């Protein structure tokens, strides 16, 4: 498994008491698998992503990323693991305004230590994969919202990570562009054998995912029988 969360509990201090954001959560994601986590606001989605990204150490439980037991690592070696093996996509693309699409990818590939002569060709291939052939030299202001999200996806993949963690990728997009971005995430997950986790409260585009789990009050319920059940459960959780 590229992502293995075992029996994760995370509590935050809250005045004189604590809030349990994740309550004995277990999740396994294999290479080439797109796993969506749906849940209402406050259910623990961001906390789960932050734990999987090794940005927060859980109160208890075990996190393995790409075969590495994160508990055995120093802060510096976790930072290296994050940089080299984990692609993180935040809701807002956070692209650098002054850089062209290809340069956004080259910066990441450089930080990940990819050899200079491989970087440019790989960046071009990735931009073509996400449908931006011919737009490599455009800056963010000359791209649409959907295109910026595509650069965001390609940038997360620059340098060949094993794991992709995605926070609300469709939140700022209309239905059609949201569907396209989700389809693209499924495509790159399968093509690059990534272990991908997408957290979302948007249940419209789950058909493109391989697994759906529902997060409710910090507890994760897996639905092997498919996304339809998960959507019904999520609707129940909201109502
Ligand atoms: N830094 C923090 N300190 C205290 N409580 C926190 C902190 N971060 C999150 N929480 C609490 O933990 C619970 C889970 O929050 P989290 O942000 O992970 O949920 P979420 O599903 O991502 O919500 P949203 O969709 O609104 O971002 C909530 O009760 C929240 O108030």
Describe this structure as you would to a colleague.
This protein has 239 residues and is an alpha/beta fold. Helices cover 36% and strands 27% of the residues. The protein has one domain: Rossmann fold (3-Layer(aba) Sandwich). The chain contains seven helices and ten strands. It has a six-stranded mixed beta sheet with strand order 6-7-8-3-9-10, sandwiched between helices. A four-stranded antiparallel beta sheet has the order 2-1-4-5. The longest helix has 17 residues, at 175-191. The radius of gyration is 18 Å and the shape is globular. It binds adenosine-5'-triphosphate. Adenosine-5'-triphosphate binds at residues 12, 14, 19, 21, 39, 41-47. The site of adenosine-5'-triphosphate has 12 residues, from β1, β2 and α1. Residues 3-239 form the ABC transporter domain. Keywords: ATP-binding, Nucleotide-binding, Transport. GO terms for molecular function: ATP binding.
Short description:
The protein is an alpha/beta fold.
Question: What brief labels describe this structure?
Answer:
alpha/beta, Rossmann fold, six-stranded mixed beta sheet, 7 helices, 36% helix, 27% strand, globular, binds adenosine-5'-triphosphate
Beta-strand level of the residues, as a percent range? Answer: 25-35%
Top CATH class:
Alpha Beta
Instruction: Give the proportion of residues in helices.
Output: 25-40%
User: How many strands appear in the DSSP assignment?
Assistant: 10
Biggest sheet features: 6 strands, mixed
Order of strands across the main sheet: 6-7-8-3-9-10
Cα-to-Cα separation, first versus last residue: 34 Å
* Helix-strand topology string: EEEHEEHEHHHEHEEEH
CATH architecture, by name, is 3-Layer(aba) Sandwich
Radius of gyration (CA) equals: 18 Å
Structural class: alpha/beta
CATH superfamily: P-loop containing nucleotide triphosphate hydrolases
């Amino acid at each position: 498994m590229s992502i293995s969360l075992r029996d994760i509990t995370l509590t935050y201090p809250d005045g004189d008491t604590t809030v349990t954001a994740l309550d004995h959560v277990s999740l396994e994601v294999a290479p080439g698998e797109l796993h969506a986590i749906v849940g209402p606001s406050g259910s623990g989605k961001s906390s789960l992503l932050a734990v999987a990204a090794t940005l927060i150490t859980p109160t208890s439980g075990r996190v393995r990323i790409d075969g590495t037991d994160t508990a055995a690592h120093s802060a510096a070696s976790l930072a290296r693991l994050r940089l080299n093996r984990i692609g993180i996509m935040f809701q807002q693309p956070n692209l650098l305004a002054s850089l062209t699409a290809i340069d956004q990818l080259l910066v990441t590939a450089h930080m990940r230590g990819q050899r200079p002569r491989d970087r440019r060709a790989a960046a071009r291939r990735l931009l073509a994969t996400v449908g931006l052939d011919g737009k490599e030299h455009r800056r963010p202001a000359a791209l649409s919202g959907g295109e910026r999200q595509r650069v965001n996806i390609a940038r997360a993949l620059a340098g060949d990570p094993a794991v992709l963690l995605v926070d609300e990728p469709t939140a700022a997009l209309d239905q059609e562009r949201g569907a396209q971005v989700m389809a693209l995430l499924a495509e790159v997950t399968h093509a690059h054998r990534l272990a991908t986790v997408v957290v979302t409260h948007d249940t419209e585009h789950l058909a493109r995912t391989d697994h759906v789990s529902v997060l409710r009050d910090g507890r994760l319920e897996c639905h092997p029988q498919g996304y339809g059940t998960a959507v019904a459960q999520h609707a129940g959780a909201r109502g």
